[in-house]
Design a protein that fits this description.
With 328 residues, the chain is of the alpha/beta class. The chain has one domain: Protocatechuate 4,5-dioxygenase, Chain B. Helix content is 35%, strand content 21%. The strands form 3 sheets. The chain has an 8-stranded mixed sheet, with helices on both faces. A hairpin with a 6-residue loop joins strand 11 and strand 12.
Length: 328
Amino acid sequence: MAQLVLGLGVSHTPQMSMPSDLWASYARHDRKNPNLIYRRKKWAYEDLVATRAGDGIAERINEETFSALHARAQTAVDSLAASLAEAAPDVVVIVGDDHHEIFAEDSMPTFAVYWGETVRAIPPEKFWFPEVATAAWALYGEQPETYPCHAPLGEHLIRGLNGSGFDVAQVRAQPEGQSIGHTVVLVRNRLMDREAEPLPMVPVLLNTYFEPNRPAPARCWELGKGLAAAIEAYPEELRVAVIASGGLSHFVVDEELDRAVLNAMKDRDEEAIAGFSGEDFVSGTSESMGWLAVGGACAGLDMEIVDYIPAYRTEAGTGCGMAMVRWS
């Protein structure tokens, strides 16, 4: 029978993989962002600066702090990569959101499992911000690459989840010319050995961003429990790792929410998880629901917060709550 041997959670913000001396330049774009969402409300940049003036953020907006936070992130990510290498899984199940890479407005399932033989990573020809290009090696790859998948496990997960009350969509092929997206590519480039062949994978895609069929946070936790049961019912001997990619809070950092999510997963506090509202998990912060799915899958393992880094880049509190977590 298959064994779930390791769980990991890693943020995939460009901040983590671009040089820290570009954070200030990258932050300039936040001032023009009309969709800064914090505590269930959209804010103009200047109003958010005023609202968060007492949060002690301004003194953290400097190159020295940026450099220190960036270094912490590299250390934590390297620790996760070492854990993955040590666990030596046969397959990795990567859980995260789809950013219109596989799905678009013509079809957007709440949950989907990819069970093709391979997936393709295709770097974009241009980037929406020049600073992001410096993180492209991690988020998109430097050249097209084909990743192996484990189609039999993918099919088994689809059947198992559908048999346990989760009507997941199945995906066997990518749209022509579309990349699998940075949810998956980041895991390959930051957590796997880039000099070796990628580990076989099964992408599990959640619609965390796009209304009206986003899942509830608690439903994602239950999905994870269903994933674990399906993995452990797989009849062949396989060592399986489950990895959450994305999150935590962004594009406005919310330390209180991030710590609530991390603590609820660590304590297996299903009452707290049931109390989470989808209204708090919007925009980039919605990717935290993928973490809840992995937390549910790994509820039988012990969770360690390797690091949590509230990586502010402006006085308004924009940035990313970067987290690196291990279940073993």
